Amino acid sequence: MSENSCHATPLPAASAAPDTFGRVVDYLRISITDRCNERCLYCMPEGYHGWAQRPDHLTAEEILRLVRVAAGLGFRKFRLTGGEPLVRADVPEIVRGMAAIPGVEAIGLSTNGTRLAALAQPLREAGVRSVNISLDALDPALYRRITGGDVAAVLAGIRAAVAAGFERVKLNAVLLRGLNEGELWPLILFAAEHGLPLRFIELMPVSRADVLTDANFLPVTEVMEMLRAREHLIPQPDHRLGHGPAKYYRLAHTGALVGFIGAITNQHFCETCNRVRLTADGKIRPCLGNHGEVDLRIALRHHASEADLAALLRHAVAQKPQEHAFRDRYTPCRPMVAVGG
Fold it and tell me: How far apart are CA 244 and CA 165, in angstroms?
């Protein structure tokens, strides 16, 4: 696996190898498409049309085969991402197939919510247990400026997700200095009103290197101080919602549960990382913030055995770096929408 190139090459079968830093990696995030119906400033570079040259997305059958292999290696938690996963028509069928695989304990979905109103109930019935919904602003004009989308559709999706009875529905907001500072408190009040946890996520250089500047980077520590000026934040050290890295606090008066994900400012962020990613075109990315990838699609389409696929997946886990490279002038070689959320 190359650490300095986005070009993945098939690797020879490797013996079983754990994460070399003692982390238990049992969580696979699966991008099922790099297409998206929004154009978020932090995710998709202007003019990106990568999918137009890439008729090589994994089929539902290929995805399910890799989930079966991963479950056989001890992966228990799975999340469907994109792009926007709900632009793919066969999502309910993929979920049903995953739910039937022995060893699959949890299936989640990350979505912008714009198509969730019609799909929340079918997805719940198919086997999705948790849903993360992006909501960077409530103001319609600002939401459109950040994402290119319609916040009314997202709010309808949130209502449908709550009504469908998922075990967890979480809201995610990416922090953007100069854009959505004024939306932080309205988002907190909205989350509290609906009884939903809200996570504030630091901006990461996942679309272009120059997306992360002093002018637009808003650290979670600064946001916490902004909130403390209005309310007491009560640490929730034992509160875990799902399988992510958020640190949660309860706001004393509103009762809102707010999580903070500080990939840039938290120097210990990677110490408990338990995930790898499968891109829509069949590459295993051991770390979002490193270039290395292992190609499983070539092996799949050359009819590799499940033992060979398992060896490649074990090799990818063993290559997981100690920490991401976002603080080292990291330049993504393909944007977040192509890697998977």
Answer: 21
